[in-house]
Amino acid sequence: MLTRPSESRPLGKSGISVSPLAWGMWRFKGDDVLAARALVESALDSGITLFDTADIYGADGAGFGTAEALLGRVLADAPELRARMVLATKGGIVPGVPYDSSPSYLESALDASLRRLGVDQVDLWQIHRPDLLAHPQETARTLERMVQSGKVRAIGVSNFTASQVSALVAFLSVPLASIQPEFSALRTAPLWDGVVDQAMAHDLAVLAWSPLGGGRLGAADGPVGGLLAAQGRKFGVSSSAAAYSWLMEHPATVIPIVGSQTPARIREACDAFKVEWTRAEWYAVLEASIGERLP
Ligand code: NAP
To answer: Using one digit for the tens of pLDDT, what is the confidence trace for 207-223?
Structure first.
């Protein structure tokens, strides 16, 4: 059997400890604060401490900032929840632009996030997508100022290539804590493009977005879904739990961001800890995903 993930893990070199699973708020919406609070509590009560949102969440419907604002309303209703979570958000996507990592924009985006969330500080602030028109040296100074201001405890990036991470890290005087690639048994690019190797080499936490491929791995469809469902059955858990555990088995101690907005499914995510993999089983899922036998 491969190594089991530990109970909690460091968020890179940030000094912050987080749960092996995170909960994400891309799909967090609505006007019902009690229902929203129930989702937050089901994640916390399942042992999930890392909460991932972004300023843009909601922009595809309810409006830019609405997911953060909803969490802000939950925290206003139940302020004691804030201390139980490691709160992560992101900025840098601007609808219609589409990316802006200029110092003035990022600083204003952070301030707007803090206002919507109703907090003085977030634990992790991430650049959501790379701005190709921003020099990494200038971006590094902006991120350092965010940490120095006390508004941010740790910094991360999302959707950066390995070389974009290297360019940024070359100018940073504070540790980059995390990266956030799309990563699932259906989207294995980070295994091949240097992203997870770099994370291990530099001790960056890997937060995997859309760990069920946006929900497709919640069902037993297709060759990958079939293998995950079979693995889940062996341990008495769902295919989605097997899908999270497949990611968590990677030595980069990948943290899947659970995207479900259903309390029972959020709780069920922790069944991932029950699943074990042999090398052969793990590689069979990878081969099914890429559609070929490895040599
Ligand atoms: P996902 O886990 O791949 O998909 C979640 C979706 O699958 C939900 O709509 C959920 O529906 C559905 N689903 C169907 N069957 C399920 C099952 N058995 N168990 C659980 N869910 C099932 O994750 P995601 O929502 O696409 O992304 C997760 C998080 O990643 C986001 O919240 C966000 O924090 C982050 N993210 C980051 C980026 C980025 O660019 N950095 C982009 C996208 C997402 P129900 O709600 O009905 O359960």
So the answer is: 999 999 999 999 888 99
Cis bond before residue 98 (omega within 30° of 0): yes
CB 233 within 8 A of CB 175: no
Q: How far is the CA of 108 from the centre of ligand 1 (A)?
A: 28
Domain that holds residue 147: 17-180
User: Ligand 1, closest atom to CA 213?
Assistant: 3
Q: Active-site residue 57, yes or no?
A: yes
Residue type, 149: S
> Is residue 125 domain-resident?
yes
Pair 271, 237: CB distance under 8 Å: yes
The predicted pLDDT at position 3 comes to 38
E strand map for the chain: 9-10, 17-18, 22-24, 50-52, 86-91, 122-127, 152-158, 176-180, 205-208, 255-258
Per-residue model confidence as pLDDT tens digits over 237-262: 999 999 999 999 999 999 999 999 99
**CATH for 140:** 3.20.20.100
- Tens digit of each residue's pLDDT (9 = 90 or more) over 82-124: 999 999 999 999 999 999 999 999 999 999 999 999 999 999 9
| Residue 261 CA, ligand 1 centroid: distance in Å | 8
Tell me whether residue 198 is in a domain.
Answer: no
Task: Provide the 3-class DSSP secondary structure of residue 201.
Answer: helix
Does 12 map to a domain? no
Q: Is residue 124 part of a domain?
A: yes
Look at the chain and report how many structural domains it folds into. Answer: 1
